[in-house]
Amino acid sequence: MAYPGGGDLGGGGGGFQPGTANPQSEVELSISCRDLKDADVFSKSDPMVVLFIQEFGRQSWREVGRTETIDNNLNPDFVRKFQLTYYFEERQCLKFEVYDVDSNSRNLSDHDFLGRAQTELSQIVTARGGRLTLNLGNPNESGPGIKHGTITVKAEELSMCKDAVFIQAKASGLPKMDWFGKSDPYLEFQRCNEDGSFTVVHRTEVIKNTLNPQWKMFEVKSAVLCNGDVDRTIRVVCNDWNSSGAVDYMGEFQTCVRNISEGPSSNSYELVNKEKERKKKKSAAGRVEFVSCGVKQVHSFLDYIAGGTQLSFVVAIDFTASNGDPRNYQSLHYINPSQPNQYAMALLSVGQVIEQYDTDKLFPVYGFGARLPPHGVVSHDFAVNFNPANPEVQGLNGILAAYHQCIQSVQLYGPTNFAPIINRVAQEARGIRPGTDYRILLIITDGEITDMDNTKEAIVQASSLPLSIIIVGVGAAGFDAMNELDGDDVRLSSRGRQAERDIVQFVPLREFANSNTADPMMTQARLAKEVLAEVPDQFLSYMAKHGVKPNPAPAAYSGPSYGGGGPPAATAPPPPDVSAPAYSVAPPPYA
């Protein structure tokens, strides 16, 4: 239903969900180079850096921008910055190319290529002080002793991303809109766009059967509400909710973040019904007051990462017999040397993102639902490397190697119990000093949970801990019960207690891959984007609820000179090896 003054209520009424969408962080990159090659005969090089990004799901590179050219300088500090949107859940591959500029041509082939370096945005933001130094390479001039200098990239989150507006509103004297009751009012906050249209950025909850409501306090990022412009118009519309889905317009007023920042004394507004005003009718529709309001700086996900908070990756793999005999190519555990199976695909998808935030790259890997050698005891909580005293392995290669070796050594059995492994990881999370570490448990499974009640209780108990749980379903089984664990719509509860926060994200792999046509790399990227998208909000909700503030970011490295004041240049880790030997294991006891 269109409301007076233009725009659309877009989802108002019976089916809307209160809340607001948060933007990702904006990061500014500063560039400097040291010990560049001198490509000019009678002077020094005139360097310029070009930044390219490999966008989500693509193999090609897109140019982001270019720095200015600095004449006659082999150790330039560039003034022009690059601004990128940071997405935790994506691998954002960056390529920096350095050129000696010889003319005004925009064609890069007209200039002398000095070197390039590649990295990921996550590697930059997690480096000490947000400062990463990389060796430049030139494939046209390689060999022992040949150096091309270094490039240093400094990342800084833009402060406009950290301001949040908080508001608690109440209204009085609203018009009666319902025949058999009063009104069911809610507020809708809309940002004015550059073209004069309005976009909904927040809706309050509905307060039923009242003409004098008081809504709950809410927060919305300033970047969402006004896009950094504190004088930008914000339209606040008061509507009456109806169970039919229809929306009855009551009135509106306008404000801006500058006014809101001045506190409650400056934020009392008359609601005006614009439709009645145009018809020369009585247009007053009550008053709205902000009983509490202002602007505050909130801590971002990157604030904690810059302050040294680690993300620790823990893996749990389903070794139940429903996966099928791993010697059979139809088994979900079958290892095809030319292509990762669904378990390996899930490991690679999530692991390639998470490992950038863990400095030691040591990951505990557990299994459940298997009979273990030598006596065939069934375990729902065993170390995949068969070292219960130290279940950690080194990096993604270590995870895959341990998984490949384990599948040759155990007998697939069952049932599918999640509670033991969740309780184990939760117990470890209880010992974490607040703000130092946050656990992410990846559970990969092919079927429905058989201990649902115990699993729900384990998740509710773990919801107050620094822990997120990602469940990836593989194969064609039904996963209906899993949606109950993913508390996006209804908060999970167990034994009369509600979870403190939503910590579970469930995704079936089949939604991202058709085995006949899908590109495995694209499938991994799409899966990672989906399953990890909620982690920053889950992370921040834990920190906020427990009053954990980020540590100050450590100073960038300033030790011995390496041609530019930075540490030895970093190198990217090699890609994981997904190959594995053939299998020879006992057949499972049941299909």
What does this structure look like?
The protein has 591 residues and is α+β, with helices and mostly antiparallel strands. 17% of the residues lie in helices and 30% in strands. Strand 2 and strand 3 (62-66) form a beta hairpin. Helix 6 (342-354) crosses helix 11 (520-532) and helix 8 (419-430) packs parallel to helix 9. It is flat, with a radius of gyration of 28 Å.
Helices and strands in order:
Layout: E1 25-34, E2 47-54, E3 62-66, E4 82-86, E5 93-100, E6 112-120, H1 121-126, E7 131-135, E8 150-157, E9 163-172, E10 185-192, E11 198-203, E12 218-221, H2 222-226, E13 234-241, E14 247-255, H3 257-260, E15 268-272, H4 274-278, E16 284-297, H5 301-306, E17 310-318, H6 342-354, E18 362-368, E19 370-372, E20 377-379, E21 382-383, E22 392-394, H7 395-407, E23 411-412, H8 419-430, E24 437-445, H9 452-462, E25 467-473, H10 482-485, E26 493-494, E27 497-498, E28 504-508, H11 520-532, H12 535-545
Parallel strand pairs: 17-18, 17-24, 24-25, 25-28
Antiparallel strand pairs: 1-4, 1-8, 2-3, 2-5, 5-6, 7-8, 9-12, 9-16, 10-11, 10-13, 13-14, 15-16, 18-21, 18-22, 19-20, 19-23, 26-27
List keywords for this structure.
single chain, 591 residues, alpha+beta, 4-stranded antiparallel beta sheet, flat
Total strands: the figure is 28
User: SS-based structural class?
Assistant: alpha+beta
Our measurement of the CA-to-CA distance between the termini, rounded to an integer number of angstroms, reads 55 Å
**Strand content of the residues, in percent?**
25-35%
- Characterize the quaternary organization of these chains: single chain
Helical fraction equals 10-25%
- Rg, Å, rounded: 28 Å
The average pLDDT score comes to: 83
Shape: flat
Biggest sheet architecture: 7 strands, mixed
Q: What is the overall number of helices?
A: 12
